[in-house]
Amino acid sequence: MSNLIEIKGLTKEFPIGNSTFLKKRAVFKAVHGVFLTIKRGEIVGLIGESGSGKSTIGRMALRLIEPSGGSIIYDGKDITKLNHKEMMGYYQKMQIIFQDSASSFNPRKTIGEQIVTPMLRLGVARSRKEAEMDVYHLLERVGLKREHFVRYPHEFSGGQRQRIGIARALALKPEFLVLDEPTSALDVSIQAQILNLLLDLQEEFNLTYLFIGHNLSIIKFFCDRVAVLYKGRLVEVADSDRLYTNPFHPVSRMLLNSVLTLDKKPLADDLSENTAKINRNTGCVFSGKCLYATELCFEAHPEMEVLSANHQYACYNPQNVEETQEQLVTL
Q1: Taking a C-beta distance cutoff of 8 angstroms, is the pair 107, 152 a contact?
Q2: The whole model's pTM is what?
Q3: Looking at the chain, which terminus has fewer C-beta neighbours within 10 angstroms, N or C?
Q4: Are residues 72 and 178 in the same domain?
Q5: For 169, phi and psi rounded to 5 degrees?
Q6: pLDDT tens digits, residue range 116-159?
């Protein structure tokens, strides 16, 4: 499969406080030089703690937020250099499904109007009648009814609003969807329905997904590959099954250990008390909490190492879980 999205050295800085004359404004670096590729038809998961920069990366990939550095290559074209007019065609190809379905709709307009309007604006439909017929079909495809076209957002449940959000994204006939924690605000039974619907639609319309989430069980079920983010840096990228059975980076192990399961095997604790060095601004972003950190870890952040074609990690002292398990058994 060819690459649909190539993220190269993506960086985002947010200003802190007010700027003053002749004084350099302080900035918070939310994303640090991220490199990530997404193949056409692939589902890539992006996981990490709250505040790690997952949603920021997703929004930058769609140019909803302007990056401070780096480039975003969409189907061979660097879209970071395009102006708003040149981006119009790409806005149709790339869509997002938000976590909070309630706030993503205008409460004063019917859901039909909110779907039809962008279709006409971007030229997806040639006439209003054609657009309305397409919306009727999409509403039924996502499990709703035609009469829902004239209702307002507050008249729907959370699960129904998320289905409407999916229909709104699909109305523009996109190729790439960013799913920003689309099921985190829903009941467990509704989550399963929405995830299965998204998988069916992905196969039916040949879509490519970037799935942002924090529920590791959902990520494993839903995604082909998983990218692990910590404090704005990618620390490991691997196939879903491999990451969950044999993570190499301590951050990946920490995230997996946080999931409670009945059959969990004992793993060595990856957290230590390097409190004297935890606030250093150099080195690996996890070094202050890592049990395996050495002096080198506090000097420079490690580069991505390629373990195999589909497994990369950024760690000076990677810990093989399978080897660790064997050591624990022999003790």
Answers
A1: yes
A2: 0.87
A3: C
A4: yes
A5: -70, -40
A6: 999 999 889 989 999 999 999 999 999 999 999 999 999 999 89
